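Sat 14:20. Reprocessing the chain from the morning session after the first attempt stalled halfway. Input below, unchanged.
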Amino acid sequence: MLSLLSERPLIWGLALILIDMVMWRVVGPHRYNWKVLARLVIFSLYSVLLFHEGLSPWEPAPSIDDAPLQFAHTVLQIIWWLFGARTLTVMIGAVMMYRVGHAGRLLQDLLGAVIFLVAVIAALAYVLNLPVKGVLATSGALAIIVGLALQSTLSDVFSGIVLNTTKPYKIDDWIAIDGTEGRVTDIDWRATFLQTSQGSMIVIPNSMAAKAKITNFSRPSDMFGVSISLLISPHVRPNKVFDALERAAQGCRILLTKPAPKVTIKSTGSNGVEYEVSGFVLSMDQKRTVRNQMYDLAYRHLLAAGISWISSIEQSEPARLSRARALLDNTSIFSTNLSEEDKDHVSQNMTLQSFPPGEVILAGGQVSSQLYIIESGVVTVALFRGGVKFEAGRMGPGEVIGEGGIVSGTALPAEFAALTFCNLYRIERDYLQPCVEARHEMCQAMKALLDFRLQIAHTMTQEEPKAIEKKGFLQWLRSRV
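Finished this time. Tokens:
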């Protein structure tokens, strides 16, 4: 075997090619720079070996009597041109990926195609000594035929060049192309790949994307807009609607405070006035949840303000109820656990109390002697972790505060304070406690609510375990220096 290698040193050339192919497939992509360096070294060794044997890629192989060996020399010279083209392409790709990232991939592919075309023509001209003019003429005619056959594909390619140059979107951007919404997962020479919120993949040809209306939700920053539209009677004063919807937006804690949510009139007509509540969230995945929450909050705050959405179905005029009585119908604890007569009796023992923004309604750890029902406004809930106060949630119309003092005489570690101007109905414990104890379902509902809130408070106030610093010989030595 060794004698064969010494007599036929060009076998080492084939060995270098095989080593390069195996190395390029085995070594992982995380060591891309090392792969490029190894390929450059292997190509240099291959060139030195070829020139040492008197085989110049710029001229045909010397004539010898051994026809198989003559053919092998010619193949090795042609491989030099292709190997060189591949090495140059990889080096250009490494530089482009370092400077322009994924956007340079399409240009890298096009440059690689041009470099390989030049290498093939050079090999035909120098190694095989073929007439290049005739080859170019033939390839030009063939290119016209292929170009006409692949007109739509070429349109995608050049559209891809435009998209990668102008960069209306990039990888991981959330975009909408003519109403098709999704996250950009890949952009290649033919198409743009979008992953929708349902998890499906949509492939849009670059030629269509270049002509379409593109909406990029990830620019100018990583904020995503979310909005809802509501149709309200034109007979309701707009300022009253603005106040209710602004409170609904403030009640949604996931909405960013900067830029602040806003309420605008979108359109007006004889059928009603269309109001739009809009804001921003940090993640596209939050949009659906936030929209649902905004609709629920809008309903509750509009109802608290005595405003109803316009419905196509005419409803009979409801019986006129006091605000306290109507609030019991919209509070889950009372709506299903009290009879109509009991609700009337309880509503007569409810006292309205107002709280300006910032005023504490129930301090943390305080056993409440009243049950509060939020009539209007937004209440913020704060917890303490490691002595630091943080906002844990927000509450709106129909929710209750102080149930622990009614059912078990316990207190929550949470502080309840008015975020906006709030109206709350107060029911004294001395009146309500016998009523709750006499009704098992109501008592269980209040206990379940208390247990749920205690569990949430416990989970949110747990301190994260501190990472244990690893101490080794070097750390010990440094501490002694």
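The longest strand covers residues 272-281.
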